[in-house]
Write a structure and sequence with these properties.
single chain, 16% strand, 8 helices, alpha/beta, Rossmann fold, 7-stranded parallel beta sheet, 237 residues
Length: 237
C-alpha cells in the first residue's frame, strides 16, 4: 500500500488532502502541532474511508521530531508540505522572532520534511507537493513574512525538482488564492467579499479544490518544477 504524509493535517487544506488521498487508495500519515481534537477528527474521517492512518504530534521546525516521524512511516510515496503559519501586521511592527517563526514553519519545515523523506521517495519514484500561496508570487501588504516564506517555498520547489528529477522524484506546488479556511477568518465577511469581487471567478476557493489539485500533481508523471495557481484568477490581476 502506498502512503501519503501530510503536514498540518488537523484541519482545513491538510485535512482535505488526507481525505482526498485516502479515497484515492492511499494509507495516510499526517502531523499536527497543537490541535489534538482536530487531529482526532481527521483520523476518524480517514478511517471511515477504510484507509490506514497514522497521526503524529510534530513541530515541523524541529529537526529531531521530523526525523523521528519519518522513521515511523513506511511505504511513503507522496509528501504534502501543507503546514503553515501567517502573521498579519505592518513590516515595521513585526518582531524578528515572529518573522523568523513564519519563515521556519512555512519554508524551513518543508525543507526538513523533504530532506527526511528523500531516501524513501527516491526508492519509490515518489512525489512532493508543496502548498504555497499567490502571495509568494506577488506579495501581500501586511503579510511580508508570509509572502517571503511562500516565495522561498516556490524557489525550494523548483530547485528540488531539478535536483531530484534524475532520481525519478517529482516536486511541484500549488499556489493558493483566497481559500475558505480558518486562516482567513481574521478578515470580516465584507473584506473577504471585496477581495473576491476582483477575481475572475468572483468567489473563494475550498479546501477540497486545493486537495484535488494536490492529488492531480502527485499523480502526474510528467510534471515537475511547476507552481500551479489554484486561485480563482488572482494571478490575472
Amino acid at each position: 500500500m502506498s502512503t501519503v504524509l501530510v503536514t498540518g493535517g488537523s484541519r482545513g487544506i491538510g485535512r482535505a488532502c488526507c481525505l482526498a488521498f485516502a479515497r484515492a487508495g492511499y494509507d495516510v500519515a499526517f502531523c499536527f502541532s497543537q490541535d489534538e481534537a482536530g487531529a482526532a477528527e481527521t483520523a476518524r474521517l480517514v478511517r471511515q474511508t477504510g484507509a490506514g492512518v497514522q497521526s503524529f504530534r510534530c513541530d515541523v521546525t524541529d529537526e529531531a521530531q521530523v526525523e523521528a516521524m519519518f522513521a515511523q512511516v513506511f511505504g511513503l510515496r507522496v509528501l504534502v508540505n501543507n503546514a503553515g503559519q501567517d502573521e498579519y501586521c505592518l513590516l515595521q511592527e513585526q518582531s524578528l522572532q515572529r518573522f523568523r517563526r513564519v519563515l521556519d514553519v512555512n519554508a524551513t519545515g518543508a525543507f526538513l520534511c523533504m530532506r527526511a523523506a528523500a531516501p524513501k521517495l527516491m526508492r519509490a519514484g515518489g512525489s512532493v507537493v508543496n502548498v504555497g500561496s499567490v502571495w509568494g508570487e506577488h506579495g501581500a501588504s501586511c503579510e511580508g513574512a508570509y509572502s517571503a516564506a511562500k516565495a522561498a517555498l516556490s524557489g525550494l520547489t523548483r530547485a528540488a525538482a531539478k535536483e531530484w528529477g534524475p532520481a525519478g522524484v517529482r516536486v511541484n506546488a500549488v499556489s493558493c488564492g483566497m481559500i475558505g479556511t480558518a486562516m482567513n477568518e481574521r478578515f470580516s465577511p465584507e473584506e473577504r467579499a471585496a477581495f473576491v469581487q476582483g477575481l475572475a471567478l468572483a468567489r473563494e476557493g475550498s479546501a477540497e479544490e486545493i486537495a484535488a489539485a494536490v492529488l492531480f500533481l502527485a499523480h502526474s508523471r510528467y510534471i515537475t518544477g511547476q507552481i500551479l495557481p489554484v486561485d480563482g484568477g488572482a494571478h490575472l490581476r
